[in-house]
Inverse folding.
């Protein structure tokens, strides 16, 4: 029985093979008489429930990613991009020489992404976003592999770009992708440069976020500083955008710690800006992401609100209400004027500042004299105040950090500082200290190059900001600068900052000096540092996390935390920040449209921007406390008390000349500034007093 089954199987196999052979013979004969049908290009559809309905196809060297709202085209040959939306078309430059810099065998090389000898583009689908992946490799003498993806995501069909690299012997030093937008038809570029800048396409002045130091656009300083994230002069928030007619689009950099941007705006424009990915400890290291958001009808307010949504979702936004709930002391800062008052200035003899500024080499006001000044202000009607004391260390302002104690002996020492603290408490004033843990002075008792930042090598020019602006040099791998009061300094590795802070404050506590606030200088202003010292290796992300540790320690042990000119990574940990004004372009309150009800920003009481943005008044150290000056302070303070917990919902210019503008808050308050008349109208008007 078994043999019969086997025989039938063999006969069927012979019959099947014979039929297939005949079919093959016929097809070959037919092929000799007429050409085969043209193969259709592949079409891919995302049919996963809940994901955007996207179709991906390739036709004549162009990949198309089509959703219901947006359609993206990618040209295979030069990697140029186009996006068609319901409101407008957006076009990006093709790949260019220099959009990729690599390092291989100790040498850097400049390449072009689109010129990769091995280029493969394939369908890409994560299940919630779909598009294409570009795989690049094969540059002669390298083993680098790049993986670039672009995909539509979510109901708004935002276009998300991911960048990753396979790095072994060859590493990425810089990568510009996606390319910059062709802004030749854009009306405005929106920059989160300082607190917000609207830059018309044909703006007549040259514009550079760092190096434009004069209102007319004149570049007056030699400055090698790189445009980069987490430098308030570059971007206070990791986004920028464009407006064309009634439509808009923006880019959100979701991995900002090692990001930068391509930028150019010559006199008359147009503006060129696009993402740039910097290396971390010498290589790309980890995936990077940027997101494009499109608005059929929208402007910079809509862009700021989209970023606010992103900040809330990622934890960057922590409201002042939540901060007060966590630390009730923060509530005492609402509507309270702030003053920075100095004790001792004493430039290091022979230092660069001592040589260039001979008129103010030495100045001192004792702790008791400051107390008398504040008693006078109180008597004249300034009922509340936050005093941020500067120049209190033993040698004065910006001297011998991080080893700053005891308090300046010539100004009263421990006893004088303790009396000042008690006087402020008796007056109902808040007491805070200006403090600094990044600048690392060579004459500090604990200075040791082992704990100073080391750059990658000893031959390249120093790259640490702000030495790249004010003059710098290296000794081996350690960068130095001589510009501030204390003379020669390097930069302290962030791992060692918290220990010094604990040491200093514990010594203050032991002497019954208990401030309620710490204002940490430079942290919010300057970018994080990376350290190549193998003993203390630190990435920029590590450095940010180390700074956050100081903010958290100050919050836990003091209660109120301030920082110099905050970037948005500081917002969850900081209660108040100093401002910074744009010196070029058109000022718009992008920062406040996102973060007004999350952090307090200080302004000169006479600055109408302080009223427009419902900020906190910051007094000059020589404030006269006269009736007119007090009236300005009281009005701004009362407005801040009304609106500190309230979202800024809108900003608008009211005339073509941009001389009248208005902000609107979620409680219905409007604030209108007329720059020609130098007037501010608050509706409803402020009636309460300080």
């Amino acid at each position: 029985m078994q043999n019969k089954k086997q025989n039938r199987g063999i006969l069927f196999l012979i019959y099947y093979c014979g039929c297939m052979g005949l079919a093959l013979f016929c097809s070959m004969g037919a092929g000799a008489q007429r050409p085969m049908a043209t193969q259709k290009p592949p079409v891919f559809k995302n049919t996963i429930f809940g994901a955007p309905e996207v179709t991906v196809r390739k036709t004549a060297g162009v990949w198309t990613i089509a959703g219901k709202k947006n359609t993206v085209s990618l040209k295979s040959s030069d990697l140029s991009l186009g996006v068609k939306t319901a409101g407008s078309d957006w076009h990006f430059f093709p790949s260019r020489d220099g959009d990729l810099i690599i390092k291989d065998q100790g040498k850097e090389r400049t390449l072009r992404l689109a010129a990769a000898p091995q280029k493969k583009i394939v369908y890409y689908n994560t299940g919630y976003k779909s598009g294409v992946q570009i795989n690049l490799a094969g540059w002669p003498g390298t083993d680098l592999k790049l993986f670039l993806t672009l995909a539509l995501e979510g109901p708004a069909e935002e276009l998300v770009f991911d960048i990753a690299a396979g790095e072994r012997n060859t590493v990425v030093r810089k990568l510009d992708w996606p390319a910059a937008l062709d802004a030749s038809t854009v009306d405005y570029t929106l920059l989160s440069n300082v607190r917000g800048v609207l830059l018309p396409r044909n703006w007549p002045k040259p514009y550079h976020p760092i190096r434009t130091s004069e209102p007319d656009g004149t570049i007056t300083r030699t400055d090698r500083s790189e445009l980069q994230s987490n430098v308030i002069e570059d971007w206070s928030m990791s986004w920028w955008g464009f407006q064309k007619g009634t439509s808009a689009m923006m880019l959100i950099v979701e991995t900002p710690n090692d990001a930068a941007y391509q930028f150019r705006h010559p006199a008359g424009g147009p503006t060129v800006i696009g993402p740039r990915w910097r290396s971390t400890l010498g290589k790309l290291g980890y995936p990077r992401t940027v997101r494009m958001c499109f608005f059929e009808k929208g402007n910079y307010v809509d862009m700021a609100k989209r970023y606010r949504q992103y900040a809330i979702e990622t934890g960057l936004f922590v409201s002042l209400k939540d901060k007060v709930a966590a630390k009730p002391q923060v509530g005492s800062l609402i509507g309270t004027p702030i003053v920075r008052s100095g004790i001792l200035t004493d430039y290091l003899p022979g230092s660069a500042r001592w040589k260039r500024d001979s008129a103010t080499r030495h100045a001192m006001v004792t702790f008791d004299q400051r107390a008398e000044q504040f008693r006078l202000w109180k008597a004249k009607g300034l009922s509340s105040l936050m005093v941020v004391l500067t120049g209190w260390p033993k040698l004065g302002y910006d001297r011998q950090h991080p080893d700053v104690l005891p308090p300046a002996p010539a100004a009263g020492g421990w006893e004088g500082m303790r009396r000042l603290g008690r006087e402020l408490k008796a007056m109902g004033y808040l007491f805070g200290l200006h403090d600094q843990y990044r600048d690392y002075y060579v004459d500090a008792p604990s200075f040791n190059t082992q704990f100073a930042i080391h750059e990658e090598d000893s031959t390249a020019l120093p790259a640490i900001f702000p030495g790249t602006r004010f003059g710098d040099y290296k000794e081996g791998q350690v960068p130095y600068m001589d510009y501030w009061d204390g003379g020669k300094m390097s930069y302290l590795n962030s791992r060692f900052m918290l220990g010094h802070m604990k040491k200093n404050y514990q010594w203050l506590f032991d002497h019954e000096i208990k401030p309620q606030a710490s204002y940490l200088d430079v942290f919010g202003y300057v970018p994080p540092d990376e350290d190549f010292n193998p003993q203390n290796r630190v990435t920029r992300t590590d450095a940010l996390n180390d700074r956050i540790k100081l903010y958290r320690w100050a919050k836990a042990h003091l209660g109120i935390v301030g920082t110099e000119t905050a970037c948005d990574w500081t917002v969850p940990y900081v209660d108040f920040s100093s401002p910074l004004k744009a010196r070029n372009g058109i000022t718009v309150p992008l920062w406040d449209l996102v973060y007004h009800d999350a952090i307090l920003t200080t302004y000169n009481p006479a600055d109408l921007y302080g009223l427009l943005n419902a900020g906190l008044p910051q007094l000059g150290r020589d404030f006269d406390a006269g009736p007119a000056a007090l009236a300005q302070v009281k009005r701004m303070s009362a407005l801040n008390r009304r609106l500190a917990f309230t979202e800024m919902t809108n900003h608008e210019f009211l005339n073509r000349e941009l001389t009248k503008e208005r902000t609107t808050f979620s409680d219905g308050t409007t604030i209108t500034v007329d720059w020609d008349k130098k007037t501010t109208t608050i509706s409803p008007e402020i009636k309460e007093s300080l």
The longest strand covers residues 129-137.
